[in-house]
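Working notes for the structural subgroup meeting. M.R. asked for a predicted model of this chain before we commit to crystallization trials. I am recording the input and output together here so anyone reviewing the notebook later can reproduce the run.

Input as submitted:
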Amino acid sequence: MPPFQFIKGEIDSYNFRIGPLKIGDEGASGLGSALAKCINLSNLTLDLGSNQIGAMGASGLGSALAKCINLSNLTLDLGSNYIGEEGASGLGSALAKCINLSNLTLNLGENEIGDEGASGLGSALAKCINLSNLALNLGSNQIGDEGASGLGSALAIMHQSLII
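Returned structure, recorded in token form:
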């Protein structure tokens, strides 16, 4: 059976934990592609922490999740991977296309993200027009003053009702 073939399109809520294993970019993108077929998916908890996911995997997963047009609640744990600057920005840009996303818990701790990635992620998340609750973990990265300032400025643009 091909990986993730068991995921069916009629589900609306899903909790999934993979790790710590050696899931890489291809595995993360493949999982995303399978989940993208779940057009009724509104609640998703996805724990891919402590794997080997890089920038391409994070961006691919995000792009696939953007196709889940009914997704409103997302908990995504990508902590302890290798997504870096490009992956953080790419994931954020993809999640900004999740037009019904209102609750987001995002763990990107220990991912080699620096100033550019933090600012890019913040700018992208600021475009999530329906986001009202955000829990964001960027601990144990390489984010300095510039990145923290960029992230804060971008998130300040968001709605008054946003809870961080």
